[in-house]
Amino acid sequence: xxxxxxxxxxxxxxxxxxxxxxxxxxxxxxxxxxxxxxxxxxxxxxxxxxxxxxxxxxxxxxxxxxxxxxxxxxxxxxxxxxxxxxxxxxxxxxxxxxxxxxxxxxxxxxxxxxxxxxxxxxxxxxxxxxxxxxxxxxxxxxxxxxxxxxxxxxxxxxxxxxxxxx
Length: 166
What we know:
Layout: H1 4-18, E1 38-43, E2 69-71, E3 76-86, E4 93-97, E5 104-110, E6 117-118, E7 123-124, E8 127-130, E9 139-147, E10 157-164
Antiparallel strand pairs: 1-3, 2-10, 3-9, 4-8, 4-10, 5-6, 5-7, 5-9
């Protein structure tokens, strides 16, 4: 099995290049990957020890696994999907947060990382779903999650993963 995984990665990377979908430093682990694949930008929570384990934004990549990045007030992370996330029927994105603290965040989406739509409601809770129809965008590549409070031991919204449903 360990022999096949590198072949799949290489094969996926080759297909992505030939299809014109190459994203630098963003190599899919499988074709069906529905989770954020790259950290485009990150501003850590201010006034927190920079060596704290919850300040690694790459912990928010891939499927939910219990490893988080804490997004306190004044911080944000911009994540990129390897593939285009289309507006389909019903909800299109799931955000996974860990922690009992009811920390809140603001979420924005973009197709090009220049023009953003920020959802009017704050996200709170362990799983939040969002519908791209509200953003009036047929598809996106980028999601920005911005911390708005300092709730909890690991201050702010503890982002575990972002998943595309379509």
